[in-house]
Recover the amino acids of this structure.
């Protein structure tokens, strides 16, 4: 009598991103002063400074197994650390400014979380194309690494483009972040 035994997929383990928030201090007693301080102290981005920034560190545990004349990637476990860098007033704010600031920073935090979600989505896509990847005629498991590197480059470029497109929409005239800045500076 024969049977089929189903085993859990050991190559894909449930993982959780580690998410950290790093604050940088800003000063001022009005929305305009706080925003000016952000312009001086915010994270460097390109040639200028950003209000906030999301960065990540991604490492992998991978296991390549020769199977006959082929090589199979049997395990690909990510370790993902996402860091959100956000402004924080260095001193207590007057009540109306605090209210404006709370609305502003809540929106900025939501914006940065979308960047974090795009990063997590990329890692899931990398995991999906990694586990079970097979390279025929590769008993030394060399060709498979080049194939994987090419696939990962495509996924990374796609994530960066999504992030740029999101920023372009959010930071453009009338965009969500643009509206948050205007409300802060105008004391709304």
């Amino acid at each position: 009598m024969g049977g089929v035994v189903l085993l859990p997929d050991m190559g894909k383990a449930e993982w959780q991103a580690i998410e950290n928030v790093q604050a940088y201090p800003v000063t001022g007693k009005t929305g305009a002063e706080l925003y000016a301080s952000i312009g001086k102290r915010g994270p460097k981005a390109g040639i200028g400074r950003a209000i906030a920034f999301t960065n990540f560190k991604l490492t992998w545990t991978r296991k390549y197994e020769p199977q006959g004349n082929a090589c199979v990637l049997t395990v690909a476990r990510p370790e993902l650390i996402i860091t959100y860098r956000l402004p924080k007033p260095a001193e207590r704010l007057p009540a109306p400014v605090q209210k404006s600031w709370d609305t502003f920073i809540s929106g900025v935090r939501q914006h940065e979380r979308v960047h974090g979600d795009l990063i997590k989505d990329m890692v899931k896509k990398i995991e999906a194309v990694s586990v079970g990847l097979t390279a025929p005629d590769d008993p030394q498991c060399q060709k498979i690494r080049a194939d994987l590197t090419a696939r990962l480059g495509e996924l990374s470029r796609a994530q960066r483009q999504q992030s740029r497109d999101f920023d372009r929409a959010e930071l453009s005239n009338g965009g969500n972040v643009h509206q948050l800045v205007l409300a802060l500076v105008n004391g709304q």
The first helix runs from residue 31 to 41. The longest strand covers residues 70-89. Confidence is low (pLDDT under 50) at residues 1-11. The radius of gyration is 23 Å.
